[in-house]
Amino acid sequence: MRSGPVTMRVRRYLPDGNPLRRGTDRVESAAVLAFLILAVLSLVAAFAVGSAVYRGGVAEEHSGRWVTATVTRDAPAATWVAVEGTAARLRTGVAWTAADGRTATGQAPVPSAAKAGTPVRIWLDRDGRPGDGPRSRIDTVADGVASGTATATLSLTALLACFALVRRRLDHRRYAAWDAGWLAMNRRRKPEDA
């Protein structure tokens, strides 16, 4: 069986009972195993976070209702466009029948230049307050993906940083042991060996 660079790296971390394997090599193998387990767990956690944010967004999408309201004051004509390129959402006074049958009033987005007495559809949130409309599905999906990706990125970055610190400490110990070994060998050498 041919051993390529990947096979050699994997074999480097597998326990094999080699008497030449140093204690720092065994610690590094354990650190690699711990890193891989924590990386898988962090990806599972990132998926759970993204799913929870997505489920919360879907619940928010369905948490309100559309009602028909009557404009109580004339709405001004739109004279400007928002920076994003969409028309400005004009708010004016409206009245609607609440779920308990009483008449409720408030400010709601209405079409430009809507006249008093005009019926309009408005969105009421879960608390019965007028809003801009239900949350869009694309926002829900984007928030879920962004939350999961951010969680995975942060946790994997932290894990890699911890692993790099462990590797650095182990390399420091290996180099110190290497230097001590060379010094001991030089002390044992006889002057006639030189």
Please write out the topology.
Elements: H1 5-13, H2 23-61, E1 65-71, E2 90-97, E3 103-110, E4 119-124, E5 130-131, H3 137-188
Antiparallel strand pairs: 1-2, 1-4, 2-3, 4-5
Helix pairs in contact: 2-3
Helical percentage: 40-55%
Mean pLDDT: 84
**Quantity of strands, as a count:** 5
The secondary structure category is alpha+beta
- If helices are DSSP runs of H or I spanning 4 or more residues, what is the number of helices? 3
- Main sheet summary: 5 strands, antiparallel
Q: What is the N-to-C succession of helices and strands?
A: HHEEEEEH
The coarse overall form would be rod-shaped
Radius of gyration: 33 Å
- Tell me the β content: 15-25%
Contiguous low-pLDDT stretches (5 residues minimum) are: none
State the strand order across the main sheet: 3-2-1-4-5
Termini separation: 43 Å
Features:
5 strands, alpha+beta, 194 residues, rod-shaped, 52% helix, single chain, five-stranded antiparallel β-sheet, 3 helices
